[in-house]
UniProtKB/TrEMBL annotation:
Residues 267-355 form the Nuclease SbcCD subunit D C-terminal domain. PANTHER family: COMPONENT OF ATP-DEPENDENT DSDNA EXONUCLEASE, NUCLEASE SBCCD SUBUNIT D. InterPro entries: Calcineurin-like_PHP, DNA_Repair-Maintenance_Comp, Metallo-depent_PP-like, Mre11_N, SbcD, SbcD_C. SbcCD cleaves DNA hairpin structures. These structures can inhibit DNA replication and are intermediates in certain DNA recombination reactions. The complex acts as a 3'->5' double strand exonuclease that can open hairpins. It also has a 5' single-strand endonuclease activity. Keywords: DNA recombination, DNA replication, Endonuclease, Exonuclease, Hydrolase, Nuclease. Residues 1-218 form the Calcineurin-like phosphoesterase domain. It comes from Streptomyces monashensis. This is Nuclease SbcCD subunit D. Gene3D superfamilies: 3.60.21.10. The gene is sbcD. GO terms for molecular function: 3'-5' exonuclease activity; endonuclease activity. Heterodimer of SbcC and SbcD. Belongs to the SbcD family. GO terms for biological process: DNA recombination; DNA replication.
Amino acid sequence: MRLLHTSDWHLGRAFHRVNMLGAQAEFIGHLVTTVRERAVDAVVVSGDVYDRAVPPLAAVELFDDALHRLAGLGVPTVMISGNHDSARRLGVGAGLIDRAGIHLRTDPAAAGTPVLLADAHGDVAFYGLPYLEPALVKDEFAVERAGHEAVLGAAMDRVRADLATRARGTRSVVLAHAFVTGGRASDSERDITVGGVAAVPAGVFDGVDYVALGHLHGCQTLTARVRYSGSPLAYSFSEADHRKSMWLIDLGADGSVTAERLDCPVPRPLARVRGTLENLLADPELSRYEDSWVEATLTDPVRPADPMARLTERFPHALSLVFAPERAPDDPEASYARRLAGRSDQQVAEDFVAHVRGAGPDDRELGVLREAFDAVRADDAVREVAR
């Protein structure tokens, strides 16, 4: 069976101040053409179809168009909700849409109930694991402590239990939206950290033939059977070196996996440039970026006048301006920025406690901080679902 694995469409999202709906529509057209020309048997979409719980009308219309075009090809599509989606909204009408071959899996309780598709070699069971917010699903999965590994492990136990009841030789595909250990993050993914740990080990998916992951925006191979497709478009300058693509997966009669990476259309290349404003305006080596979307990091010790206006004279598609003045190592502002770079909210809070008290938090206080941050994230998740 030939599968096309994609995820993280984020319909309705802008890139800085650029409306991306046209580029997203171009991707949908490319997806439909690929399905037709490469004789795809099933499409899997691993979450974050929309960029937010209540998407703009134009994004809903584009999604509706995508569903109609895929259904018109007669090729089954299986998709799950991600942490940006409203599972309830995305899942409205799922029972009716099933009849058109579009299978929306947004209910965590149905993790062990597969979509069964067949080819000449027998059944392939597709299990959809929507994004599992631990605080919201821990009771459903009867786990003692809310955490990503615990709830995802419990969901996979249901998958393996159901698979054990299937005819011998039934192949299996899992769609999941999670941060799996070994994956590389970018700046455009929403934090899903709980209990100080966001990642789950790839071994949690043992026992199935292919795992189609969503959430991280870079295309990645964690194992031959566990892969991220990444987002089809870049949504932050941290993705400037990404090659945006989808996975074309051939699932053999014995469950073997053969993967081919298919490129997605690029609306405009990204570039990150760094230096003083005068150097950026004069360096001939940077001429190749004059038609790119540009993020410029200025290292001038004093902020120059009208930097963006001057930059756009050379780089008309400059979108982002970052100030990182070069400072002496003993400059207080430089050392503070270095201390904060790459640190989580909890680590920053721990550093603050140590700064004002002279000693860092003890184990009990660490637990209080962790619970406080988890409570804030859980409240955010509940509000997102309720929107």
